[in-house]
Amino acid sequence: MMLVGYARVSTIDQNPELQLDALTAAGCEKVFVEKASGAQRDRPELAAALAYARKGDTIVVWKLDRLARSMRQLIETIEGLEGRGVGFRSLTEAIDTTTAGGKLVFHIFGALAEFERGIIRERTSAGLAAALARGRKGGRPPKLDDNDLKAARAMLADETIPVGEVARRLRVSPATLYRHMPAARSTVQDDSAKK
Fold first, then answer.
1. Is 10 a catalytic residue?
2. Does this model's pTM top 0.85?
3. What percent of the chain lies above the pLDDT cut of 90?
4. How far apart are the first and last CA of the chain?
5. Pick the catalytic residue: 10, 37, 125, 186?
6. What contacts 24+ positions apart, CB below 8 Å, involve 165-170?
């Protein structure tokens, strides 16, 4: 069994000494140090620490927010460790998933995070339903309104104006124009042939 430490500071100006001292005092034999924002997805030293830990080892951090920026990210990381038989310990919050009490605390955190996600989903659904009841639809407004579509039809009726030019004049991409008018050129030609 080995204690594997991970220390992280957010900027180059911050000094990891406080974390390193605490990790050394806790008995960490190997410590990985990173200077990166917690929001940054690519953290090579964290990846190295996680890969280095073997079954029976414990990853140790000074504080929970050194490992992850969100509860969801924290839970996913610790569940991944647990699946490999690797423990987790946070010195400041006194969480140790290698003990029954530590596992209980961590599972309570997980339940609270799941509860929070459920509340957010419910609020979002209720807000969308209320907006719909008031006549508002969710999502972005369409890029082309009725006047734009009339102008597009008129320009497309002239075979000398390419579809790309019509889109450029309306300040949209040709894909957007086709999305609003799936058969752009052929529909206009069919309509003019009927007259």
1. yes
2. no
3. 30
4. 85
5. 10
6. 170/144
